[in-house]
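Hypothesis: this fold can be encoded by more than one sequence.
Test: take the structure tokens below, design a sequence, compare later.
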């Protein structure tokens, strides 16, 4: 390394950190230092052990350089507070059930629900479950958050705008807060258990095939001892409150904003099967243009501002890693270090069950278990409520989990058993274990400890190896399948958990690539009856398109991978268009629909008129018309769910006796009638001239901050980003789920990453709408237009590349 660089770094960072930085191969460089043009800021920080620095590049991505491990994770917490303080503070208050203290009594029920789902087990076992450094990382991270919060509370740093709008102050943390919070994680399928019971009660269990296709092929039955009609529609009200985001509203609208609507909740929960997940794939060196592996990942979650994920680079002696994580957690979960790359998507393990109990008529705090009555565990906690005296919260638990609903009239109680209550299942926190692995075996070692969410983890390394492993805490159910609620009397118990070796994996796959998209990817010979992992998966349409494209290209480039992440080809659309080909009609609307869809290329592009008709058709017209014929008693339960479309398409392709005496003719009439009403619907929204119809006129991305209802008009406008015309839909690689009411985008890929494994600076990424949580920062919204048009920014790794792109250099010294 040249002497000029040595002098520059010495001047920037101070002697204590420089020895470590200059000795790190991952940070070596041989170009003149360009930092003179960057904005220079300095800050002293209480709790920092040695001088350090944060280089923020022109896209708002911070790259942290510290002289020791403690300072690195301390500064990750400090920087998260610097950029996302409102977001992480609200995450903590929500997770711990502390909302009513800041925001008033209307949040008291949500607090109670949230506290039901906290981890309440042995904290020593909890910390040990994540690996040897988990507690050390969390302690340092929390100390960094607290250092920033303490300065804000003391007036040494500015109070972010969001706290001024809400009239609150940020809190100090303890390390246990990071892992005890569970309710932000993704498990499944308790809502579907309830929905299946409702369908079974209304129309018989067979009607549920129109709602969701069970995979692998499986026939469920009503568990012995369960009356499906005994499951109340609102049984998951507390679960809904515990897992939803915090909603803010003007005082007159607060109760409505926080109310539980069981129909809406169950519909949205079912839709998450196809909307909350990810795409990822890994390509061997033999199938890329560069001769190096490519790893791509674009997780799909509900869109928000600030973004759910935050991109950061972490560098200290012995650790150099970059990628995206959750801003309130130490480490990163999707990215790479100097040797390996990693990415994740949901692998649909069923990690929760609803239990139904008979209550003792003489004692409502006892439930039948075995041949006797068992006492509920009752916990009393103090709840602070703004403007009121403290309240006493009474929380009840059975041996399986929290009691979420009591049917007093029928002497029944309902509780949720979830892997959340097992050690080591704080969502994504296990990434602090695998992000420093150096090879496949080290990666697998961390995966053995991975708890939640259950994931398809893909892997690549600089030696050219690639792999996939399914990981997550997986209940072993031997005498039931987890598809319906079960009596809690002891007949239906988990028999421990499957080990990592009992879940599928692949190393150096023969086809030279491996892709996942939340689809059913258990191997054909997997012993499903002995290992009932789960039966409800996303439709395979995204995966099918991805694998078709990858299989047809033996020299994939990074540009190809980015194009594939933004591919809007609708495989379900191709299947439905095939059914339309022989049809004709004299009806003007039906004819117009057929004329648009028969030649359609099945691409949900923003400028397509056919895509507008297709999506309106499947979202609001095809399902209700089909179910009116095939399962009228279940139509009101199933038809509102766009997520049922894969199951409905399968039914249309193979019409059976449920369609009537002439199934094929009935199917064709359903297609015509529903398409005609869809065309009329599009015309009512976009005007009578079909030449002006565009999917992007309906399907727009708009990011509205949760606090907008409390802000003044000017600030509310500053808090919002968009609208932006956007292509895609739920079941295409460019995942973009929308509201059925107005087609506005609600979920999809907020973060994308494509890695050139080994030539790390060539890697690309995008976050949306921006990296910063400060609505007055340029990085609050700057990435949204790039994201909307399928563009990326560099994910820089080497010090030389980072320095060349630095917009702000922050020098930090101990106070």
């Amino acid at each position: 390394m040249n002497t000029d660089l040595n002098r520059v770094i010495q001047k920037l960072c101070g002697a204590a950190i420089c020895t470590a930085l200059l000795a790190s191969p991952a940070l070596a460089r041989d170009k003149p230092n360009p930092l003179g043009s960057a904005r220079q800021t300095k800050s002293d920080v209480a709790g920092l052990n040695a001088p350090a620095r944060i280089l923020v590049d022109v896209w708002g991505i911070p790259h942290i350089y510290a002289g020791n491990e403690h300072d690195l994770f301390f500064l990750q917490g400090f920087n998260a507070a610097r950029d996302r303080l409102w977001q992480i503070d609200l995450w903590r208050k929500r997770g711990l059930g502390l909302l009513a203290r800041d925001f008033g009594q209307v949040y008291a029920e949500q607090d109670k629900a949230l506290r039901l789902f906290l981890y309440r087990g042995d904290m020593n076992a909890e910390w040990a479950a994540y690996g040897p450094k988990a507690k050390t990382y969390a302690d340092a991270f929390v100390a960094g958050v607290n250092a920033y919060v303490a300065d804000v509370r003391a007036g040494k740093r500015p109070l972010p705008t969001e706290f001024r709008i809400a009239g609150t102050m940020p809190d100090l943390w303890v390390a246990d807060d990071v892992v005890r919070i569970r309710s932000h994680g993704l498990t499944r399928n308790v809502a579907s258990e309830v929905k299946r019971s409702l369908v079974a009660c209304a129309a018989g269990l067979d009607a549920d095939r129109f709602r969701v296709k069970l995979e692998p092929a499986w026939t469920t039955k009503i568990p012995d001892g369960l009356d499906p009609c005994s499951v109340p529609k609102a049984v998951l009200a507390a679960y809904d409150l515990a897992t939803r985001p915090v909603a803010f509203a003007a005082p007159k609208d607060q109760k409505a904003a926080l109310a539980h609507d069981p129909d809406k909740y169950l519909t949205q929960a079912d839709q998450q099967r196809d909307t909350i997940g990810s795409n990822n794939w890994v390509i061997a060196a033999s199938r890329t243009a560069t001769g190096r592996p490519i790893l791509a990942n674009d997780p799909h979650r509900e869109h928000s501002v600030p973004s759910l994920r935050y991109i950061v680079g972490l560098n200290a002696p012995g650790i150099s890693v970059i990628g995206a994580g959750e801003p309130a957690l130490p480490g990163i979960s999707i990215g790479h270090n100097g040797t390996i790359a990693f990415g994740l998507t949901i692998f649909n393990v069923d990690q929760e069950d609803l239990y139904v109990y008979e209550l003792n008529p003489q004692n409502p705090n006892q439930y039948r278990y075995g041949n006797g009555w068992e006492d509920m565990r009752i916990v009393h906690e103090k709840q602070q409520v703004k403007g009121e005296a403290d309240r006493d919260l009474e929380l009840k638990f059975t041996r399986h989990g929290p009691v979420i609903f009591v049917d007093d009239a029928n002497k029944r109680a309902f509780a949720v058993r979830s892997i959340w209550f097992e050690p080591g299942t704080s969502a994504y926190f296990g990434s602090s274990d695998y992000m420093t692995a150096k090879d496949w075996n080290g990666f697998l070692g961390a995966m053995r400890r991975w708890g939640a969410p259950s994931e398809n983890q893909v892997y690549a390394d600089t030696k050219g190896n690639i792999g996939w492993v399914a990981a997550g805490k997986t209940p072993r159910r031997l005498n039931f399948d987890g598809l319906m609620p079960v009596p809690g009397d002891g007949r239906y118990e988990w028999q421990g958990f499957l080990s990592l070796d009992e879940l599928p994996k692949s190393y150096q796959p023969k086809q030279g690539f491996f892709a996942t998209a939340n689809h059913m990817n258990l191997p054909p010979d997997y012993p499903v009856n002995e290992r009932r992992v789960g039966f409800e998966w996303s439709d395979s349409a995204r995966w099918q398109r991805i694998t078709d494209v990858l299989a047809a290209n033996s020299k994939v480039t990074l540009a190809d991978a980015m194009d594939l992440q933004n591919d809007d080809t609708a495989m379900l659309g191709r299947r439905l268009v095939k059914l339309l080909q022989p049809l004709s009609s004299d009806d003007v609307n039906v004819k117009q629909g057929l004329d648009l869809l028969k030649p359609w290329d099945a691409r949900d592009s923003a400028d397509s008129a056919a895509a507008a008709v297709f999506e309106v058709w499947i979202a609001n017209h095809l399902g209700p018309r089909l179910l009116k014929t095939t399962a009228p008693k279940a139509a009101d339960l199933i038809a509102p769910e766009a997520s049922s479309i894969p199951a409905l398409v399968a039914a249309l392709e193979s019409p059976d006796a449920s369609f009537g005496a002439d199934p094929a003719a009935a199917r064709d009439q359903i297609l015509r009638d529903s398409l005609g009403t869809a065309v009329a619907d599009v015309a009512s929204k976009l005007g009578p001239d079909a030449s002006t119809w565009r999917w992007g006129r309906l399907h727009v991305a708009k990011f509205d901050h949760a606090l907008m209802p409390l802000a003044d008009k000017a600030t509310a406008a500053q808090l919002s980003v968009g609208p932006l015309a956007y292509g895609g839909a739920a079941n295409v690689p460019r995942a973009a789920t929308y509201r059925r009411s107005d087609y506005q985008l609600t979920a999809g890929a907020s973060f994308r990453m494509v890695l050139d494994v080994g030539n790390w600076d060539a890697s690309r990424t995008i976050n949306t709408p921006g990296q910063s949580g400060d609505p007055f920062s340029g990085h609050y919204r700057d990435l949204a237009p790039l994201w909307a048009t399928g563009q990326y920014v560099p994910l820089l790794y080497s010090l030389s590349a980072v320095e060349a792109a630095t917009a702000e250099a922050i020098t930090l010294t101990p106070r």
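Residues 190-265+351-421 form a domain with the Penicillin G acylase, beta-roll domain fold (CATH 2.30.120.10). The chain has a mean pLDDT of 93.
Hypothesis status: open.
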